[in-house]
């Protein structure tokens, strides 16, 4: 489903290569995790997949269901079924959460050549999903993420995910920031959305997130490459022995 082949990425305008040949396939129904030391290129991978400016792909490909993501605008990526969650969700003053969600759903529908969802159908759908995720109605009315606690932002992100029903979710939760409660929230949200038709790529610096989201496959990234892949045990091994041993072993 998500297929990344030999992906090489430079920093735009600089002679610096960050990703040096990433190969990764995430199948439908599977949760893949990427771990790795700071600065290894994990976030860069998620930024490039999201279409953020500032990076230049020099080689390789990234496709979702056979369609090249790298040629798409951000909205097209969302329409193709890609969802990206970052550690610090943006605050949008003046835009109510409901309005934001409905705009996102309709943008996705438009890009797919579908009609807009009716106001009543939308309301019904969001209320059902919010209820299932134990999100109170008050949060739906407030401006997007403004004044939300860390936990509320995470809850809101999971709601966005539930509403957009993506094929492929990429979560970059690196470099702390998440307290234990927020981590559990993300994990239970991800677990509730695990589905045979949906894949997840969970990027994390810490093994403990993977106690709650038990991945099918764990990849270790170092210096712009995936240096080792394995089962959930690989995350535990890294937690115990650190990355240095692994790097030495691979070298
Ligand atoms: P990780 O998420 O694994 O910690 P990053 O993808 O954030 O790694 O960073 C990989 C490398 O690229 C680091 O050396 C980082 O300093 C560098 N880098 C990434 N983005 C930028 C940028 N916009 N400007 C300068 N350096 C960058
Ligand atoms: Mg980092
Ligand atoms: Mg990072």
From TrEMBL:
Keyword terms of this UniProt record: ATP-binding, Nucleotide-binding
Record keyword Magnesium present: no
One Pfam entry name: ABC_tran
Key word ATP-binding present: yes
CDD domains: ABC_FeS_Assembly
Limits of the ABC transporter domain: 2-248
Cited SUPFAM superfamilies: P-loop containing nucleoside triphosphate hydrolases (SSF52540)
Family as reported in the entry's similarity comment: Belongs to the ABC transporter superfamily. Ycf16 family.
Name assigned to this protein: Fe-S cluster assembly ATPase SufC
